[in-house]
């Protein structure tokens, strides 16, 4: 077992088992966008999101399948995510998030500060989900399926067992670099509890509700990686903050195997525990913090849960078969909402935006495989009650409902198109700079009245560009280029972007530049960035000569894969200005020779505190710092600082070194308790060490223990348009805060200056610092919604940074100016379909969108010609905002033309739309036998008939590449004798059909038309297989009356009834090498005479089934009996008689007018003719007229002739064959 997160050495196998500690539920469980709202380092996960959010986190890494970048927001956090979960802030249920798919657990690890995390990618947007109650630790490390929703938690940590009452040993001073004994050190008190009997269990879920509750629940499990399920479990409960635990298996059922634990975010006394579905599918419900449980059977397997943000009994459950259920009684009863819902793409309503509190937003699949955005009420989600806020289809895994915004991605044939709805208004396409051309887009954050988006552009591979939107989320501008990504454990990628907790507008990012990565900081949301100033001295007091810009401080901005160990950077909203991070000093970011650095003034100055990497947590609401060395080896010491990292005191928390799996910090608002979770050895039980660190404080803080702190940016007091003064505890005072103490004492608005404004959409900042129009942007463009007599805001090229509070100054100069709308002709007319496609199915509703870049929309007439003889006209453009719908009643390619016209001019545009319908049937018409070196016509008849919308692919003979045509016929010359295969594929719309025929190619041949006694028609199902089988039986019967070689006989049965066939007598394969041609012809003539004689004497017959004998006739008026002695055949005989009459008439007309027949067979070579000709089958005489064969007739004529041919099968050899070509039996 490998150590996870470097917790244990090679011998310590079980320490690789990550433990999930769910410290507390989010106060508001909200869906996350595929991002970390900049509250945590942004993580881009390469792991594919599994269908089950709540799936067991122990699954092997083999489950990772595709790479996608995703950003998640840590919902509910008020600005900080610290790795050590605070029970009152920590999430109480997992929220798996994915725009492309990762588990919420990984998100939940966020340290204090907004560390923006991303995940694997699909689609561009992802949402946060409740997975099993807490993050989990496994033998292979933190799994990506379930995770703690850190969105709400400021502090998170693992509960690690430890030892009893450690005592502080010495104090470490930065200036001295060594520890000094202190006799008056406050002592740590604690207790240790071992989960006896669970040494084999390799997963643990720990829940501490906080809010002054003393209850802790621990679920340990044995996950079998070979069978992929939980085989054993134990539920433990403590009512004294973890001093002692009670085994609860008897209360839930001694044989019940539990898999996941969920806690209601709005009432932490309510708990759901799921059983493992391999044994039974049930839910155990408790309303008294796990003191008692009631079991309810489930008819489905829950993969994830999403609790309502305000209603404690409401929950959504996602099942293994992609069904979404709702419950309004905390899981006792469930009702189906919708089938075929995309994993992690369902959301509860947002208060203040959605009218119904039980409204559910979801992404659902249609029967034809498309994806739609659907809304309905949880308990009345019938088809009639469903709404579709976006009328078209969307990309899979692209729906994100977050705060004021809803995001979708629309499938297009070329570039990706992203749409946003602000405060539930209609969807508007997101506007990125024209040539950003995103390969991938993820929403990073939406919680500061604007949208942060990470975009990987067409020329980027391992970096992303950071964009910021306006308040409505429509117009995006570039904030930073080439933000670095880092590959984490399990293939996850993390975006090196971190939002500092507690200070609005402050971000830290790692940027790749000239093959180097450097760390930059901004105080105004990316308007300006600068390098970090390195410390002036090292730990030993030696001067550090590091001169900007050649040398600076660089920080690692990754979150820990283990949510209860510190990441490489930590901040906390209750301790504004304090930043603790791992980094190095030099020209670029490195990952060796790193140290720990602390800033007490929001990144303006830094000092080094450790030479090695440590896990650091905030204690006492941020009043103190606790550090534990990176646990690659067992430890029993921790360090605490009361002066923002300047001095540290060392304490012992265990008498025996502990492999630390995690730390849970501050379980309650009114207590000072932390819990270590880990193992003494690889064979030991789970150890829980509860520590009450109240004893390290000498007293409670008073007013004199606080001081003011002025936020500034390198001496500039105005940050985000304000002068902000905070109250903080004086460094070095050993007093206890108990509650959040940090607050803004005063916030005075500043006079607006240039750095309070960023470049507006379409503008770029030049080297002189001014914003100028980009080469692709026309600043004189006026919105088409601007009508004569109205006013519009004309941009100055600048816009105020969102949430910047400056006033006056240059505000008026940089703010957009109100101007009167000018009169102008229409310009930039664009016509598209709503789904962006140039194809449509016959009979479907096609919605056309008309866009006009310039022109008075209220005074511009719009005309639209659909190209099928219909057109519409609108007096102004406003009538076309919802699109213009039209239904085509025939297939074809239609020229659709739009015209915009007003008194000053006009503009027009054209679109060619392919209207198609699926091909239902294709039949290949070709002769059975053809003459070598003679051109033959081959036709494919398609039903229903299509006009210009069908593509034909022809494979002729041994050709490996097809001949592609838009016509249903083709001419071909076979150059060699033998059996040749012809295949045609017909493509129309989304359907492809195929038919294949085999043709015999010879120098010459003889043929006879055959008919049968009428009783054969009663058993003719008219399918190719039946015709082939009957052809083989006829051939066998003919061989019994003739000694002609079997391989030179070919029998082809025609489709339809009356049943008819044609017999071909072929020359020997090696005729050219053996007998002369004349001799071979004489041999064929003799064989023909023998067969005709046998047919005329009714000697050829076969038994179709017992009691049913079929006689084969030569088709001649004198030989084929017209009336059967049996009464049941009289009608068939009469039909044959009539068919002879009609066929004779048809032959006469053909001869008279020499009509060109498309599928006439070529039976013999005719020389000295300019046009290809057909000679009838060799028969009684040579007086058969020659029929000229040229181009094919229309499809309608072909079908008419096919019907006519079916009544012409009673004529002798003298008649030309125009019947439908049947399947033929191979020789």
From TrEMBL:
Lineage: superkingdom: Eukaryota
Keywords, alphabetical: Glycoprotein, Membrane, Receptor, Repeat, Signal, Transmembrane, Transmembrane helix
TM region positions: 1133-1151
Subcellular location, record wording: Membrane
Signal peptide range: 1-31
Principal subcellular localization: membrane
PKD domain location: 855-909, 950-1001
GO annotation, cellular component aspect: membrane
Pfam families noted in UniProt: PKD, Sortilin-Vps10, Sortilin_C
SMART domains, sorted: PKD, VPS10
Record's bilayer topology term: Single-pass type I membrane protein
Family annotation (Gene3D superfamilies): 2.10.70.80, 3.30.60.270, Immunoglobulins (2.60.40.10), YVTN repeat-like/Quinoprotein amine dehydrogenase (2.130.10.10)
Region (Disordered): 102-135
Similarity remark: Belongs to the VPS10-related sortilin family. SORCS subfamily.
Protein name (database record): VPS10 domain-containing receptor SorCS3
